[in-house]
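Hi team, as promised in this morning's meeting, here are the two structures we talked about. I've kept the exact order from the run log so nobody has to guess. The first one is mostly here for context; it's the second one we should focus on when we meet again. Sequence first, then the predicted C-alpha cells.
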Amino acid sequence: MGYSKEAVHEAKKKFDTRKSEWERKYEGRKAALYTVLPEVKEIDEELAKTGSKAAGIFLARKGGFESEIKKLKAENEKLIAKKTELISSNKLFCNMEKERYYCDKCKDSGYIDNKRCECYEKLIKAQMCERLNSASALKLSGFENFSLEYYSDELKNGVSPKRVMAGIFEQCKKYAKEFSLNSGNILMQGNTGLGKTHLSLSIAKEVIEKGYGAVYCSAHNIFDTIEKERFSASSGSERDETLRALLECDLLVIDDLGAEFTTQFVAAAVNNIINTRMLTGLPTIISTNLSLKEIEKNYGARILSRIIGEYKIMSFMGSDIRWKKAKN
C-alpha cells in the first residue's frame, strides 16, 4: 500500500517549510553567537578553508602529502575542540548544536539510508488524516457543548440514564485527556440519537489538538471509499491509500458501524482493520447501533470475540435527544 501523490506533495511542502524555518532559526542563533563570541567566527572561517587547503596540497604534488593532510586534520581537530569548549561554557549557546535540526536522526534531510525518516512519514500520515477528516464535523462537536440535561433522571430497570451518561461523559473526557498510543479501545453502543457521534467526535478533536494523527470517519462513507480504491482501474500509489491511513493512524474512530451496506468485502475490511490495529497496539473507537448479536451476525464470531475481549464497552442510555432538541 502506498500514499497518494497529493498527500506526499503536501507533506513535502510542509517538510521543506519546517526545514527552512529551522535553518533560519539556526543562522539567527549563529549570528548572535558570533557577536558574543567572535573567536568562534574566526574558527569557523578557518575551518571553511580546509577544502581549499587540502586541494592545494594535492595540486602541489609534493612528496609526503599524506603527512601534510594528517597535519591539517590534527589542526582542524584542535580548532573544533576549542570551538566546542567556547560554546559549551556559554549558557545561552551551550545546546545550540544539539538543537540545530528538527530531527536529529536524519539531520532534516528526510531520509536515512535512502528510506524516508519517521519524521517525514509522520507528516505524510498527518496529511492523510487531514484529508480524511476534511468532510467530518470535528469543528462542530466538543466536550464543552455536550449537555446531560436531555437525559432523564427517571429510573429504568433500576438505573438512571442521566447517571449512566454522566459516567460515560467523564470516561470519554479522561480518555481524551490522557490519550497515548497505549490507550485502549472503546465500543460505544446504543440506539440512535444518544450522543455516540458527539462524544466520539469530541475525543477525536481533542486528540488531534494534542498533536496525534487521528482519523474520524463514518462507516458508510469509508468502506465505500476503500472498496472503490481497491477495485479501481489504477494500480498506482493511490490504491489502498485510505485503508493504509486507517491501519496506521494514531487513533481511528469509526462512527455508526452497521449503517454501511454489509458485503463480504466490507466484513473482510472490518476484520482486517480491527485485527491489524489490535496487533500493532493502536487504539480504535467504534460507535454502533448494533447489538452484540448483530455485530456477530454482520462481521463474524471472531470479531465479536475481539471486541468483547479487547474493547471497553460503553452502553449508552436514554431517549433520542435529537427529538428533544427539535421540540425545544
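And here is the second protein, the one for discussion:
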Amino acid sequence: MTLAENIVPKPMGTGPGDDFIAPETDFAPVDRFREYRRMWATFRRSHSSMAGLIIVMLFLIIAAIGPWIVPFPEDALGSIHLDRKLQPPNAIHWFGTDEVGMDIYTRVVVGARTTLWIGLTITGLAMLIGVPLGLIAGVSNTWVRETIMRITDIFLSIPGLILAVAIVGALGPGILNAMIALSLVWWPGYVRLVQSKVLSVRNETYVEAARSIGASNFRIIFIHILPNCMSPIVVKASMDMGMAILAAASLGFLGLGAQPPYPEWGAMISIGRNYLPDWWWYSLFPGLAIYFTVLGFNLLGDGLRDVLDPKQRS
C-alpha cells in the first residue's frame, strides 16, 4: 500500500480543533435592510427631498384629520352666513371669509382630502391602464405592439389639458367626470415608460435563464420583468400626483371640475378671482395650498428618482 493510499480524507468538523464549515445562511433580509438604510441615507442628504417629504406628510395628515380640526365644519357643506361675508383674515377666521360668509380656512383644510382623492384616483387609474398596456407592448413583437403604440402616439399628440376639457365637455362638468377625463389623458405616459423599460430588460440574462428552464410568459412578465420596472413607475407616479392635482385645479378654475359649494381649491380660485384685488385672501390661500402641495410632490419625486434610479440623477 502506498503512502497516498494511506491518506484517507476526513470529513471537516468531525473532531476537536478541526475546521468547521457553517451551513449556508440566507442573508437576504440583512442585505435588504442595509439597502434600505443606504437608500434612506441617500434621500436624507438632499435638503430639497426632505422638504418635499415634510410637505407631503403634512398634506397627508391634514387630509386625514382635516374635518375634525377645522373651526367651522358646517362651512365645508355650504353653510351661509351673510353677516360675516368677505371679512379679512383675523383671529377668528384665519384666512378670511368668502362672499357668503364661509370660513376659507375651513374650506381649504377640508379641500385637502378632496385634492388627495383626486390625485390618487387620476394617478391610480392612469397606472391601471398604462402599465399593463406597456407590458404587453414591450413583450410583444406582433401587430398588437404596433396598435398599442400608435394609439398612444395619437393621445400624446393632443395637448393633455385640451383633450381633458373636450372629454369633460362631452361628459358634463363635475369632479367625477374631471377625474375620468384626466385619467384618460394620463395613461399614455405610463405606456411609453413601461414599454421602453421592458425592451431594455427583456433580453437580460436572468430573463433568458427563466425562459430556458420553461417559465411561462406570465411568470416571466410578473416575476422577472415587472419588478425591475417598478422604480421608474414609482418615481413617475410620485411626480404625477402633483401634476394631476394641478390639472384638476385647472379644470376647477375653468368651471369644469368640482361645483360649488364643494370645497375644491381650483374652484375656490375661480370664484375668488372675481373679487380681486380688494378681497385678495379669497384666491391667495387656495392658491398657496396648490402651490405647496405640487411643490412637495415634485421635490419628493426628485428625491425618489435619486434613490431608486441613480442613472437619472442630476
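Starting points for discussion:
Residues 1-26 have pLDDT under 50 and may be disordered.
The chain has twelve helices and no strands.
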